[in-house]
Amino acid sequence: MRALASFLVGIVVVLLLRSTALSAFAARGIVLDVLAFACVVWSLRHGPAWGCSFGFALGLCGDLDAAHWLGRHALVLTLLGYAIGRLATTLVRESARTQFVLLLTATVIHQAWAALFELRGWNAMPQLLTRVVVSALATAGVGTLLLMMARRIVGGPLFGNVSVQPGTAR
Amino acid sequence: MGGILPPVERRTGALVATWVSVSLVLLLVGERVPQSFLRGVGATLFAPLDRAVLVSDRLAAAWRENQQLHQRLTELELENGRLRDGAREYTRLREELALPRIASSPLEPLELLAMSGEPIPASATLSGGKDRGVRDGQVVITRDGLVGRITEVYPFSSRVSLLTDPGVSVACEVESTGVLGVVRFVTSPTAQLLFTSVPFTDTVKVGERVLTSHLSRRYPRGIPVGRVVRIGKDPTGLTQAIEIEPAARLSRLRHVFVIAPPPDLETRK
Fold it and tell me: What CATH architecture applies to the domain B169-247?
């Protein structure tokens, strides 16, 4: 019950952030991909089953909010959630470098997939590539920094040692 | 396969397969799902939360704006007196020339709660819906210019398609010369607001203001849309592609006004 509540609260918080504070950045050309960030963090913490479910629910809400084809975000975030959840069992999840690389990869995949739907011709390619790269670097940088700050505030590991399987009690 | 994998792995695999299948089905038939209704439910649920998130930002901005608005109010009161004289003369002259009256629309102020669409916001949620008399097709403006058009109305909120929605196009004219064209937002190759369908025989200069034109069925005439910043060629090579900077600051919207669309062309006659 507690997990489900945090699942719903997580989705609401992400969508709120996306439609209020982060939309101002997006309008200035810096897309902080909070969907990818949340999906990575959730999957690292809770493992593949919760990761893919969270990715699916978050993606579906994101699709509805953006008023475009349903399933566009849902599909890619489901797969990302699952893949990162699986990787979480073998990675040092508390490492800032690991988090940076995961956030960078997830954002590149998510943004590139979203950009594919906007591609109208090859001359738009450099612009879209720039957006994907800027978004990935910004999200990975800010995301890693946020996780480091959260670790400081909590005063302990956020995801637990590699020996603690994601999704199990901590 | 089922026998090789442990039960937890099998359950996770089944879960992923389910979500992926649902996503793929939605990608194929998502257009037929009643999205407007679902968005309406979402907008209604999220409206109080959006307000709560925005309250601190709004308070600080309101404090700053208060002083500026007092000064502006005084300036406008003075200007209004002069304009009222001019309007009386203008109305009398139009009557003498047997031209139809130009009606002014009442302004319905609404708060902007959230923006959506990526990478650049293409739509926004407003704080009023059917409860405030908002109707589909009404025009949304700020004191600076055109913002967009109401496309979905829910019981307590509504959705406006912004000028930055690639699906929105506005019949416009250049203020000083009356050159006609269509303003639309394009995302490819670069995201920009373009004043299109302007033949090469028409001269447009950088810095000129672009307003909604009398040819528009959806927007009243004379609302500022933007200012010309660059003049280029359309990819077809047949017309000019003029980049304009939006008059309304779309990335800093807080309050907007909803006005009625123009009367239908048939009823105008």
Answer: Beta Barrel (2.40)
